[in-house]
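for the writeup, i need someone to sanity check this before i put it in the appendix. the sequnce is what the collaborator sent (i think, or maybe the updated version? ugh). structure was predicted straight from it, no edits. if anything looks off just tell me and ill rerun, i have time this weekend
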Amino acid sequence: MLKRIGNHAIDDTAVRIAEANYPQPKAWTLEYCPPVYESWNIVHIGMLLPEAHQIYVCADNCMRGVTMTAAEMGQADRFHCVIIEEKDMLYTNLEQITIEGVSDIIGKLPAHPPAVLVFTVCVHHFLGSDIDYIYRELEKRFPDITFIRCWMDPVMQKNHRMPDVTERAAMLDVVPQAEPEPKTVNILGADLPHDADSELMSMLRGGGYRVQELPRCSTYQDFLSFGKAALNIVTYPSFLYGAEQFSNRLGRDMLYLPPVFSYEEIDRELETLAGAVGVPVPNTADLRAECERALAQTQALVGDTPVYLDYIAHTRPLGMARHLLEHGFRVERVYIDVISAEEETDFQWLRHNHPDLMLFSTIRPKMRVLQRSESNALAIGPKAAYYADTAHFVNMVEAGGTWGYTGILKLCERMRDAFCRQKDLRDHVIRKGLGCESLI
């Protein structure tokens, strides 16, 4: 018997922050995936590794999204699939299917890549596959290739690490131990290179440090040189687990310095960085005053325009909402499904000071049928733009390479541009990820 799972009411999709649960404003349920690009997925992340090849082992129904991503990036020649059929699970050995399928693909490549990211999947869990045996056999057959152990197992994400977290850690696992170079630093995390004028980059380069970032690598050897860094700086939470494992294995110091909005937090991070690398802290009073002027200028332009934002735009969406509200912006909605422990303080502050702020789910089934009409809201992030159906939006994911005080300045600049210039919503938010050839 079919049962209706949604209607046009919003009572099941949104909640006042004063009444929201922490850390999940709404309980898990059947999920809806809107036709909007999100943060970088496992294909995008793997493609950041120069010269590497990706092979996914799964049933064909699961291959649509990853195949589209590779094609949209113009990187289909670095991507292959091993399709598992029902008979393979019932009557054959899944380990052998995986080994022979991967071997067949490698044998048909024009040349052996230095590394292959092999993605096993949920069914390998279900059938109790011997993953270690699979990789031992592949390494024996192809000793010139480094096999990186990845997973595409979204069914595990509610009680285990997300596939992208596992992948990032697996990529760092292959970086060899090397003699540390005192003036070399890794910035780990962001899928987009950090802005050269951010305090993070300017302080490091001003101190004579060589900065290594995965998005700036042009060869596989560039990536392997990450083992030479004397210090690892992590700026993106999904890289934190892998970076901790990597830093412990190599015996290196690590700093966690994510992009934040609170001036006090920014100052603490600047002081931490300065102490670790021996450089002076920039004049934060001047930087703060510049941000205050930019925020005032932006608020005067935007006025009472409703502001909607989402968790795709930034890893600190509640921190962003709080900072904008503290500066007079009319933030009405935050599209979010889980509240990070890093944002609990901002969550409690918003509950107390702005109890009517609405938290909207992005994945509950009713969002599919929720009435959408064109609005003049200013949206920050692709999901907020899609659900608001607005042409005025900041097209940004994962903080867009921004950090610190300069990050706030650039957000203000992008908000002013979004308010003054319309974008074609349907031409933008359907793109699968920044960096793709299909994205302007």
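The chain has three domains: 14-30+284-428, 42-173, 181-257. The chain has a mean pLDDT of 91.
thx in advance!!
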